[in-house]
Specification:
This protein is mainly alpha-helical. Helix content is 41%, strand content 4%.
Length: 273
């Protein structure tokens, strides 16, 4: 299941047309508030919620329907550089600035739109103002207590960890799902863009890298802590096979179809409407 979607009926939370998505939008605060009113978590309709609003999304869950945060983290300088190339083409974003199309990475690093400890701010719920060591400690504690962490440089291993921890198995079409997984884990994820891949990334010690790093001092320390956590959290899945996703997998799209003992609602193809 997924956590993003559309508006839909204001009085009901459901899966329309056997889509793999629930008709709530957890990518906005208004959508999260609506999902909370509708009893989203206790409905049991979704297995995963996608949202950038960490603290607001806490209201979705209840003592009888708890959640566990998971995320793939990226080195802050790499993340900021990728964001620059994204913002150059993201005409659909409210923050889009046409003049950025002609900017160099150095101009971005010297601008007021360069990322400034974005992850520390998100995790400490301090989106504006100055940061100090206390904010970093809060961010580290939130990650330690709440997150199953993955790392972008170990994307395949991170996905395997998630599958093992959450007991995810293929249920729709295992060969196709495995091919899709392989493309995503070997290609840098679903949000990689061509311009970012073509550009030669700056290296530590180069002026532009150091300028961006100076804006993300706390995030770099947080990322180094997350790398340590990634190694420690291997203990969560000790003894579980790496191919857990394929063990007792079923195929509801096959002919004849197969289903797990607990049953499974086969999703229809998602089409643009």
């Amino acid at each position: 299941g997924g956590g993003g979607g559309g508006g839909g009926d204001d009085d009901n939370t459901n899966v329309e047309d056997r889509s793999p998505f629930v008709n709530v939008d957890t990518t906005t605060v208004v959508g999260i508030e609506r999902a909370h009113r509708l009893g989203f978590a206790d409905s049991g309709l979704a297995g995963c919620v996608v949202t950038p609003f960490l603290y607001e999304a806490n209201a979705l869950f209840t003592p009888t329907a708890k959640g566990r945060l998971f995320s793939v983290f990226r080195h802050p300088v790499d993340r900021a550089i990728s964001m620059f190339y994204y913002l150059q083409v993201a005409t659909w974003e409210p923050t889009y600035k046409p003049e950025m199309q002609t900017w160099t990475l150095e101009q971005y690093a010297n601008s007021d739109v360069v990322e400034n400890n974005w992850m520390t701010r998100q995790l400490s719920n301090t989106l504006g103002g100055d940061l100090d060591d206390g904010h970093l400690k809060v961010a580290m504690e939130v990650v330690r207590r709440k997150f199953l962490v993955g790392i972008m440089t170990q994307l395949e291993a991170s996905m395997t960890r998630f599958e093992q921890f959450f007991r995810w198995k293929y249920r729709v079409n295992p060969p196709n799902q495995e091919a899709c997984r392989s493309r995503l884990t070997s290609g840098g994820g679903s949000n990689s863009n061509a311009k970012n891949k073509k550009a030669k990334p700056p290296q530590p010690g180069e002026p532009v890298w150091e300028m961006i790093a100076a804006q993300n001092v706390y995030d770099i320390q947080l990322y180094e802590y997350i790398e340590t956590l990634f190694d420690e959290q291997e203990a969560f899945v000790t003894g579980m096979p790496d191919n857990f996703r394929n063990i007792d997998a079923t195929c509801c799209k096959c002919d004849p179809p197969s289903y797990p003992p607990e049953g499974f609602t086969c999703p229809k193809k998602v089409t643009n409407r």
